[in-house]
Specification:
With 218 residues, the chain is α/β, with parallel strands linked by helices. The chain has a single domain, classed as Glycerol-3-phosphate (1)-acyltransferase (3-Layer(aba) Sandwich). It contains 7 helices and 7 strands. Strands 1-7-6-2-5-3-4 form a 7-stranded mixed sheet, with helices on both faces. Helix 1 packs across helix 2.
């Protein structure tokens, strides 16, 4: 209930402060479970993607945030689930799987932590594990401008133009055989490549920036 009350307010604020624009919402499934995988350059990314997405999202947030007074209780009531970033977190993956099994939608940032605006880094294995185990559609998303609006190390946000773009859903089959690790790595690279395609389209078409940013995927 709190999510439904606060989302319209948050969207108005994000449009006023950051000129939030959204593209590709037709790629977001209207019903049924799905996973969104997005780049991550700002603490603003979860509410920006949540505000842009027409469906309610559950997102995984670093566990440390849940111990912050007021903030921890708020994000938990908004559907956030804690994620330990040091190594794999089976508990967080099981929670996400339960949300998907119930027909919900989950937002994951495959890179695991924030990085510079426009630079994509190698994905952690969690998103690929979740996608391949669940078999649900995976919607790539690119958030442009959030790293300018509130970059890492800055105390308060500043005005900037933000665009959230959703791409065509990807499908992954369960990993099998002795080559599972390679299959997870291939799925991770495919996700990041889809996000990179959206980024390059935003750079060329949305007027956020003209230069091509580096893509650091190894």
């Amino acid at each position: 209930m709190l999510y439904g009350i606060l989302k319209p307010i948050a969207v108005v604020l994000m449009r006023l402060l950051f000129g939030l624009r959204t593209h590709g919402t037709e790629h977001v499934p209207a019903t049924g479970p799905f996973l969104i995988v997005a780049n991550h350059s700002s603490v603003l990314d979860p509410p920006l993607v949540g505000g842009a997405c027409p469906r309610r999202l559950t997102f995984l947030a670093k566990a440390e945030l849940f111990s912050v007074p007021v903030l921890g209780a708020l994000i938990r009531r908004l559907g956030a689930q804690p994620l330990r970033r040091e190594g794999a977190d089976p508990s967080a993956l099981r929670t996400a799987q339960r949300v998907l099994a119930a027909g919900g939608a989950v937002l994951v940032f495959p890179e695991g932590t924030r990085g510079p605006e426009g630079t994509l880094r190698e994905a952690k294995p969690g998103a690929a594990l979740l996608a391949m185990h669940s078999g649900v559609p995976v919607v790539p998303a690119y958030v442009s401008g959030s790293g300018q609006a509130w970059p890492r190390g800055r105390r308060l946000p500043r005005p900037a133009k933000v665009v959230v773009t959703f791409g065509v859903p990807l499908r992954f089959t369960p990993a099998t055989g002795a080559e599972r690790k390679k299959q997870y790595e291939d799925a991770s690279r495919r996700m990041m490549a889809a996000i990179a395609d959206l980024r390059d389209g935003a750079v060329g078409g949305a007027g956020v920036a003209k230069a091509r940013y580096p893509l650091q995927i190894t």
